Description:
313 residues; 2 domains; 4-stranded antiparallel sheet
Amino acid sequence: MPTRLKLPFPSGPAHDSNPLAPADTAAGRSLTLVVAIMTFLAALCAGAAALVAQTSAEWRGEAAREATIQLQVAKDRDIDADLQIAAGIAEKTPGVSNARIFSRNESEALLTPWLGEGLDLSDLPTPRVIVLRLNSEGPADLDKLRRDLAAALPDATLDDHHLTIARLGDMARAVVLAAIGVFLLVLIALGVVIASSTRAAVASNHDIVDILHILGANDTLIAGEFRRRFLSFGLRGALIGGGGAIAFFAFAQLLAGQWRATASADQMQAMFGDFGLDPIGYGLILALIGGVALLTAWISQRTVFQYLKDADG
Length: 313
């Protein structure tokens, strides 16, 4: 079995102060810091993508379990009577478990996000809304409901939220794809930095590499030394960056809980939920930590092989 490469300098503190790929120099610490920063950014992208996907699934699931009936106010009709008729028709429709009539104040409140607060809407013919709760066991017969409403109340409009669901899905996919794109760019940048650092380390220790060749060390053993050293760089930096990302999401979830009553928090919660990653999200970050460490070691080894090949050529 091949033995581990014995470097041409003593073990212990002297060895640690002058290894083939030094760990306690400014270059080693800088590389660890860069790996930590890149891992942190990549983990943020992965976590944001997981949050958006998770929240989008909740949005679409909630929207798919509801439908709304909208009635226009007309002078020649009793809107309250029409609301009762529409609610009765809806409750008789298979798949509809509940029909709730919104009061006039509740219907006007639905316009607040678009019109702002403090407006007097009493003189406007604000449409009235009935919210339908659909059974989760099976699909509701909304086509029958639409036909029955058209026959009894021509001014009634049924919205099954399919456009909203489609738009939510499109928006979530766009955000996730953007996060994946940034994630890949961060990994590419990290790979370039690792390769450059490795080449610099090999070049600065070129004399030692030549001596090792004279002593009979082949390229595989030399590259293995760099792989082990850079694996420690990558693992240390990835743990710092990944741990920082986990702490960031935990702290953001805590702040979101404290700011829940504010308007800005409501907007952020609508996009990202309560910032709480599910086990899959945290699993992605943990997998990223291990992946960055292995990627650092692999890129370092391949860079050393290529450098030595070019030098021999």
